[in-house]
Amino acid sequence: MPKRRNPAGTYELAGRQVNRMGYGAMQLAGPGVFGPPKDRAQAVAVLREALALGVDHIDTSDFYGPHVTNQIIREALHPYAQNLTIVTKVGAVRDDKGAWLPALEPADIERAVHDNLRNLGLEALDVVNLRIMGDVHKPAEGPVERQVEALAALRERGLVRHVGLSNATATQIAAARRVMPIVCVQG
Fold first, then answer.
1. Host domain of residue 133
2. Residues involved in catalysis
3. CB under 8 Å to 178, separation ≥6 — which residues?
4. How many domains does the chain have?
5. pLDDT of 80-122, one tens digit each?
6. Is the CB of residue 106 less than 8 Å from the CB of residue 179?
7. pTM score, two decimals?
8. In this structure, are residues 128 and 148 in contact, taking their beta carbons and an 8 Å threshold?
9. Domain for residue 4, yes or no?
């Protein structure tokens, strides 16, 4: 099937050309991004339709649900199209009431990468964004070097291909870039 024309154009993400319009999978989980969706079959159908309409990159995280969103992505799309880029996040967890909690120790980051790998059904993650949790709702200054070094080690082991940042300040972006290349930054 010919690729749909994309009037918004493309940009480079992690060494690939992707359409400017991607799909943010956060709302595939239940209310408040917690628990399962009301209609799982509809969530699967939404993902399949997004790709049919030309979406070639998905933003997700295993802390959405938790685990629910990545499991739905796997159910809907695995085995993944070669041109699909999945960008996931680490750096937070959810408690049993749904609160967002920082999970920024190197062991937390490694555990989150393995959770994402397992629930997405992948051997390596295309892009992992470090969600900096100094403030849940907006960027706040604080060190990021230990976390980025943990991701660099996971990249060296072949579990992560590229690293980005989420909820970062300009100072944190500069500090992370001193440790390793950063391929994207999201708000």
1. 10-186
2. 64
3. 145
4. 1
5. 999 999 999 999 999 999 999 999 999 999 999 999 999 999 9
6. no
7. 0.93
8. no
9. no
3-state SS track over the chain: CCCCCCCCCEEEECCEEEECCCEEHHHHCCHHHECCCCCHHHHHHHHHHHHHCCCCEEECCCCCECCHHHHHHHHHHCCCCCCCEEEEEECEEECCCCCEEECCCHHHHHHHHHHHHHHHCCCCEEEEEEECCCCCCCCCCCCCHHHHHHHHHHHHCCCEEEEEEECCCHHHHHHHHHHCCCCCEEC
Selection from 110, 108, 83, 63 nearest residue 3 by Cα: 83
CATH of the domain at 170: 3.20.20.100
Assess if residue 181 is contained within a domain: yes
For residue 2, being part of any structural domain is answered with: no
